[in-house]
Every structure is written in C-alpha cells, then in structure tokens.
Design goal:
By secondary structure, the chain is α/β, with parallel strands linked by helices. It has one domain: Maf protein (Alpha-Beta Complex), CATH 3.90.950.10. The chain contains five helices and six strands, in the order βαβαβαβββαα. It has a six-stranded mixed β-sheet. It is globular.
Length: 208
C-alpha cells in the first residue's frame, strides 16, 4: 500500500540545483522541505549499479539520520553512442569542482572520436529515479526519462549540469535555454517536461 507524504521532508541532496528543483516541485503540496546539508547529514556512498538503487541509498540514509521521511533523486545523462555513459557517474564526470563544462567537453570529445556527427548518432536521455523513504524502511519509488539529442556548442545558462547540451525531442531550445517553469514546472504552470518533473508527477499521483 502506498504511503502519503505529509509534514516535513528531508531532501537528501547536497547539489544546489537539484535542491532548488525538488523544493519547487514540492511547494504546491504544503510539504515543508529541509535540506540534508542544513541538518548536517553526510552524503552516503552511492554503491548501486543503477539510478533507482542510488536514490534508495540516499533516501534511506537521510531518513534514518534525520528520523523523518526523506526524498532523494538520482539522475543522469545516458548517451547511446557512449554505451550509456556517463549514466550513474554523471555527477562524478564533473569532478570535485563540479565543472560540468569540462564534463560536456569530455562527452563531445568522445562523440567525435566515435564519429557521432549526426543527430541520429547523438541520441541521449535524462533519467530521474525518485525515492521517498521513512525511518522504518518503507520506500516509495518511481522513475522517468526524457529523450533528446546532444548539441554542440552548449546553449543557454539556465538549469544546471548537462542542460546546455541537451535538446529535448520536439523542442527548439535546450534545457539550458529554458526557464525553470518551462523545464520542470508542473501543470498548469508548465508542461512537466523534464525527467525530474515527469518522475515527480508519478510520485505525486501515489503519495501526495
């Protein structure tokens, strides 16, 4: 049986971009969000082999550490021509300084090396796995994707991470060129376009 999310929820991330997006998604539901960093919670080691497993690790660790429900996202960019890389290592490709421009340059270099010069060969998707965990071990989990193509050079300064090189299918602008409402705003404010918004809509349906 699904469990409802009420009261205060720890957002189990130390990534300011994710924290902002998840907080915005929760705002209409009268759920008070508090960041894991504000509670002094350490980041657990992400040892799973997929997005869902890592989201679960983060949510359970924060929930038990704070003794309250916790909300975690594990997400990343999956590039077909690179056999799914960077995938669950998406954040780590940016290094300790979170230099995503360097990470985008690395991807572009690898695409050039494998001859991915046409849009058909530059297919990619963003994946978002969301997990809400309670201190007793109960979890609610959902996952969603958004398909697109990688462009070069990067376009736009909005969003975070790999947004400036990701052109969603059916759109003329990258995520980096969209406002937050355009990228992940929920209806009627937006179209729930991003992977994180799509996953959140699934979670809201069962828990909010």
């Amino acid at each position: 049986m699904h469990r409802a999310i009420t009261g205060t929820l720890v957002i189990a991330t130390h990534n300011p971009g994710k924290l902002a997006e998840l907080s915005e998604l929760l705002a209409p539901y009268a759920v008070t969000a508090v960041a894991a960093g504000a509670l002094g919670l350490a980041e657990p080691e992400e040892t799973a082999s997929d997005f869902a497993g890592n989201a679960r690790i983060k949510a359970l660790a924060a929930s038990r550490g704070a003794a309250m429900p916790a909300f975690a996202d594990d997400s990343g960019l999956v590039v077909d021509a690179l056999d799914g890389a960077p995938g669950i290592l998406s954040a780590r490709w940016a290094g300790p300084d979170k230099d995503f421009h360097a990470a985008m340059e690395r991807i572009e270099r690898l695409l050039e090396q494998c001859g991915a010069s046409t849009a058909a060969k530059r297919r990619a998707r963003f994946v978002s796995a969301l997990c809400v965990a309670w201190p007793d071990g109960h979890v609610e989990e959902v996952e969603a994707t958004v398909e697109g193509t990688l462009v070069w050079p990067p376009r736009g300064n909005s969003g975070f991470g790999y947004d400036p090189v990701f052109l969603p299918d059916g759109e003329s602008r990258t995520f980096g060129e969209m406002t937050s409402d355009e990228k992940h705003g929920l209806p009627p404010r937006g179209r729930g376009l991003s992977h994180r918004a799509r996953a959140f809509l699934k979670l809201a349906e069962i828990c909010l």
